[in-house]
Amino acid sequence: MTDAIAYERIGEIAVLKAQNPPVNALGFDIREGLLAGIERAEKDGVKAVLIYGDGRTYFAGADITEFGKPPRGIFLPDLCARIEASPLVVVSALHGTALGGGLEVALASHYRIAVPSARVGLPEVLIGVMPGAGGTQRLPRLIGVEASVDVITSGRQVGAKEALALGILDRIEEGEPREIGLAYTQELLDSGATRRPVSEMPAPEAVDFDALYDKVLKKGRGLLAPAVAVRGIQACCELPFDAGMKRERELFMELMDTDQRQGMIHAFFSERAVSKLPELKGIAPRALASIGVIGGGTMGAGIATAALLAGLPVVMLEMSDEAAEAAKGRIAGNLQGALKRGKISEAQFTQLTEEALTLATDYDALSDVDLVIEAVFEEMSVKKVVFGKLDAVCKKGAILASNTSYLDVNEIAACTSRPEDVIGLHFFSPAHVMKLLEIVVADKTALDVVATGFALGQRLKKISVRAGVCDGFIGNRILATYRKAADHMVLDGASPYQIDKALTDFGFAMGPFAVADLAGLDIGWAVRKRKRAEGMDPRDRDSEYMDKVCEAGNFGQKTGKGYYVYEAGKRGGTPNPEVTDLIAAERAAKGITPRAFTDDEIVTRYMAAMVNEAAKVVGEGIARRPLDVDMTLLFGYGFPRYRGGPLKWADMEGLDKVLATIKNGAQEDDYFWEPAPLLEKLVAEGRSFDDLNKE
Ligand code: COA
């Protein structure tokens, strides 16, 4: 017997305690330990077995680190069958999170009790697979088709109270899992309760599973796992238990073999790894009890909202009383959303807007805050004035942060007497919704300032990514390149609408042109004007057709017209025919004969441009690892999670293939398609981006 399961006999009950921290994942040792524990109990002359977890949780799932590796020891489905078939009465006592394989072990037990704070669920679809140890066969027998489809295809965590009402749990008791489990098991024995295998319960009636499959597939926006899981539930209704289990295994293995599974698991581990910086080990963050925000536009108000919701008092600084009131209005509007969704109560809403938020027009109001984030106009001269004033009023040790999206944070830091306290905190709009936070570390930023940036990110429930200083940092720099690849394809013959469609079919939340309309076309226009004024390289292909759209006062969604025409009250827009005419005119003026692009070619080029720039960003140390880029694109740029991120995608696609696309492009335009040295090196060495993640 392994140490992962401790065995103890208490009267007529054998107690199996799982001890595999941090989350009691059902790895080899735990599985073998459970098997040995059940066998020992059966020989020990007891009447019942109690299973529970030590530490913070019951089994939180199969051990995901074993996925894709050669199988070892007893299979989880066989273990579940063995537990259920035991002649003893088997009880599981749940606390923490009984998820995936964990819930499947609980479902194989004959009775289930939990503490009130316990949560259960089958989140396998969130890592690109489906329940594979009887979850789709046992759960519907307990709670019916409709509830099972909801729980399994959403992967959501179900609270104990709801789980009791649904019939997943038999009882909820306050206390420790061991204590409530023992009392319940004894009570069952005393009342003469017998084994109650879920597999022997009748299966629910079948429904129209083809329609259900189609509906779930559509909702998954390209993610297959939830729809395939529906077929598992179908098997529960249409086949005897053993045949249903066999079918579930086949479907599970189908998903296990997909790139989607690899992408989803890469995302799962990377979102946890991304904010763990070796250089921050043992570095304590500075105290963070209040923050200041300068500028109450959409961005500043979003940042303030996020901070307030995380329990941080905010001083909002604006230029005038009217502007400050307008900022408060925006923040209150954001908080109304949280109120409507039940995230805060009416009383909290009032407390946040009337007490936790302070409006100010004088920099002196910032003299006592621990951290200030400025979200003022994106112009170096303006930023310098702000930082000069902050330097004068902020207390010693206060952190001075800029929300700039591309300006040089070193230059900003240099205009203060305390560059070690200056950092970039780049939020994404709307800042109280978007999960990404780029933490831009300048040359002189102190380590404990970086640590505080990450601590703030964690407090605001963001995915924080460390970025070095360059034009656009990680995300916007890569965006500028792949957006350019799209612009070039438009000049050469593709339409913006075909490109948007090809990329949403690939899995992006939106295509680049729809995104531009949403963000406001004035932003890109200003950048183009700035670049032209600074002097562009003659080899850099420029396009002017959207300037004309902007000159006419059309800036995308906010004005009702851009690449698309938007009708009030309708989601999404229809292609703007004026844009098509302007593109045709520009091609003619430039002497370009338009050619046809296939959707495949569009995706291949767009992705190759993205991967190439990403490889430069990693190669230059702007991003620490490939996974940092992947998480940036996933959480800030609508990249499909089931593809793992651009560099995970590139690994799966084949780096040689991606490099070939880049070299092919270089034959027409060797300025834009200059291969990243890191990509060439990896191809030459036969290595992958993921190899770098593991270094
Ligand atoms: N297999 C292997 N490792 C796992 C794991 C699993 N099923 N679940 C969590 N871990 C690891 C995490 O990677 C993390 O490792 P790290 O400390 O080295 O980064 C550690 O356990 C703690 O997890 P974390 O997510 O940071 O803790 P949390 O308290 O925020 O959340 C869970 C706990 C269980 C809710 C969350 O980890 C989770 O959802 N796990 C996946 C559950 C799942 O999908 N199970 C189904 C698989 S069949």
TrEMBL record:
This is 3-hydroxyacyl-CoA dehydrogenase NAD-binding domain-containing protein. In the N-terminal section; belongs to the enoyl-CoA hydratase/isomerase family. Belongs to the enoyl-CoA hydratase/isomerase family. Residues 472-566, 602-687 form the 3-hydroxyacyl-CoA dehydrogenase C-terminal domain. Transmembrane segments: none annotated. Pathway: Lipid metabolism; fatty acid beta-oxidation. It catalyses: a (3S)-3-hydroxyacyl-CoA + NAD(+) = a 3-oxoacyl-CoA + NADH + H(+). It is found in: Peroxisome. Signal peptide: none annotated. The keyword NAD applies. Keywords: Fatty acid metabolism, Isomerase, Lipid degradation, Lipid metabolism, Lyase, Multifunctional enzyme, NAD, Oxidoreductase, Peroxisome. Residues 291-467 form the 3-hydroxyacyl-CoA dehydrogenase NAD binding domain. It comes from the Bacteria.
